[in-house]
Amino acid sequence: MLRVIFDTNVYGLLVKESNIGKIQVQIANDKDFIIYGARIIRDELRDTPKSVKLGKLKIRNLLLNLYDRITFGRCIEYNYDLERLALEFYVEYRTLGGIRSWKEISSDFKIVAHACMNGLDIVVSEDSRTMLSTIAIKAYKEVALRHSIRLPYFWKYEDIKNKFGF
Prior knowledge:
alpha/beta
């Protein structure tokens, strides 16, 4: 069984798939690929403007329904240790030459901290500029080594498409 967390951008890509209803059921029912949620992700999805539509449907509602359906009952609680680890990722990131501000990158680092602190196996993201940048990955590795914590594998959206065949 793989324990997984999706970055916020993955939900946006999923709802644009033509067969999202089928995909949603497929992901939600896969007992070997369990998706976890986090308040920070749901909050980012809620920040989607209510007026933005995909066809006749409001994207915000689609995103929140998808999130709720595939993470049902599996929301990782936020705590001080997660914040501290995310900040440590950021300090290491800046030390290695990262240029993004905390405001720009904090959500990404918090999602990775959620994965590390809760023993998740995979983080899925399409964000190569921040979460999956070479410097960010190096920062995660350095901090994880210092604390003897396991770093999750990082997948791209294409890996999800291949796994579920859509």
